[in-house]
Design goal:
Length: about 400
């Protein structure tokens, strides 16, 4: 074990490298999160830093806290008047779209890696549930990735498309989490009935939504009326309500990720005092969480474990980008008469990022055999997505003709 002084030094160095990496991403046009992951991998046990880190539980805890802050910050920064026109299609993408992606990609994974495949995560090849698990883990687009790319991109898409993509990425994580945990539950407790699964899904969404909006309204009321003498405490107070929301939603059986996004959306749009202090604080905190999360996830990766699954992961990533994601977007947006170029652009900007990697640590905590293989496949899929979709985001905005004037 390192002494506390050594840990403080290591954290300081890693944060410094993370900030410098964000500047490098501006110069190179590479998504910052990719460089954050690279910093973590270089600092890891197989990299130059030699930091020995292999705790999926710690990575999961760091990732959960970071996602709470990032989603909450995203909600605080979202203008309700901008979201309202895209609310229905956004909700369809974040629920039905995630389910369709899971089924389509899961079917491909099962067909490609079925019982006659040599790929092994506990059995010879993949069972149907194991294939669905892999697909569910990577089924949601990533709020940290999407928010980060749009904040730093020199070319912006039409506002209605950007708001749709940001709302989708901020609200579809709960469905991916639910599907992943439900499938893991079915794998560890095969006697679970369909009724129990549906009841769990309904309670998670209802509890998360109710807790988020209720605490959001209460939090906004308190913040607007408390009259703190120290204005620097206002952002801390707002943060406290976000953390309370996640904990209370989880305690009543709701989905905490959905709850914090909803609470942030309410507080951010009802805040009347101290916005000039709250916004910069939470923007900086969101960046800190992104750097910390991606570096920790990068530390968890052993590059030598990626090569054996490269072929499988690349095939799944390409199928996800060119088939599963477009099918789900087309089915969800078809009723709204969206132009084909907008549907195409929304399909392409389906970046995968931190959420799939965090969810990929769940199988280990459930005691699933072959959890390391799942993590490595998911990590490689995320890398492929960030490289192809992240690097082509600016030119694709022009290719699809959706550039904001």
């Amino acid at each position: 074990m390192l002494e506390i002084e050594s840990w403080i030094l290591a954290i300081g160095v890693l944060l410094l490298l993370g900030v410098l990496a964000s500047k490098l991403s501006d110069w190179l046009g590479v998504p910052a999160l990719l460089l954050f992951l690279a910093v973590g991998m270089l600092a890891g046990s197989e990299g130059l830093g030699g930091i020995a880190f292999d705790s999926a539980e710690v990575a999961q805890a760091v990732g959960t806290v970071a996602l709470v802050v990032i989603l909450y910050s995203g909600g605080l920064d979202t203008n309700w008047s901008a979201v309202r026109p895209v609310l229905v299609p956004g909700l369809l993408l974040s629920t039905v779209g995630v389910c369709v992606t899971t089924l389509v990609l899961g079917g491909f994974a099962w067909f490609m890696l079925g019982e006659f495949s040599s790929f092994d995560i506990g059995t010879v090849g993949l069972t149907w549930l194991e294939a669905l698990l892999l697909a569910a883990i990577v089924s949601s687009t990533d709020a940290a990735a999407v928010f980060s790319v749009f904040r730093t991109s020199p070319v912006q898409p039409l506002k209605r498309i950007r708001y749709l993509l940001e709302f989708e990425s901020g609200s579809n994580d709960p469905m991916a989490v639910l599907l992943t945990t439900v499938i893991l539950g079915l794998m560890t407790q095969p006697s679970t009935s369909t009724g129990q699964v549906l009841t769990t899904l309904i309670l998670q969404f209802a509890g998360g939504g109710i807790a988020g909006f209720a605490i959001g309204f209460a939090g906004a009321w308190v913040v607007n009326r408390i009259g703190l003498a120290a204005t620097g405490l206002l952002p801390v107070l707002v943060l406290a309500f976000g953390l309370l929301t996640f904990g209370i939603a989880d305690a009543i059986g709701g989905n905490g990720f959905l709850a914090v996004y909803a609470a942030g959306l309410v507080i951010g749009n009802r805040l009347k005092v101290g916005r000039e202090f709250v916004a910069p604080f939470h923007d900086g905190l969101s960046w800190l969480m992104q750097i910390a999360m991606f570096i920790v996830l990068g530390l968890l990766v052993f590059p030598s474990g990626l090569f054996p699954v490269a072929g499988v992961a690349i095939a799944m990533a390409l199928f996800l980008m060119f088939v599963a994601r477009p099918v789900s977007v087309f089915l969800c947006l078809l009723p709204f008469g969206k132009p084909r170029n907008e549907i195409g652009y929304v399909s392409w900007v389906g970046l995968r990022g931190s959420v799939p990697i965090v969810l990929a640590t769940f199988p280990a905590s459930y005691g699933i055999a072959g959890a390391d293989a799942v993590f490595n496949v998911v990590f490689f899929i995320v890398l492929t997505s960030v490289l192809l979709q992240g690097l082509t985001l600016v030119p694709s905005t022009r290719w699809f003709g959706v550039t904001q004037d």
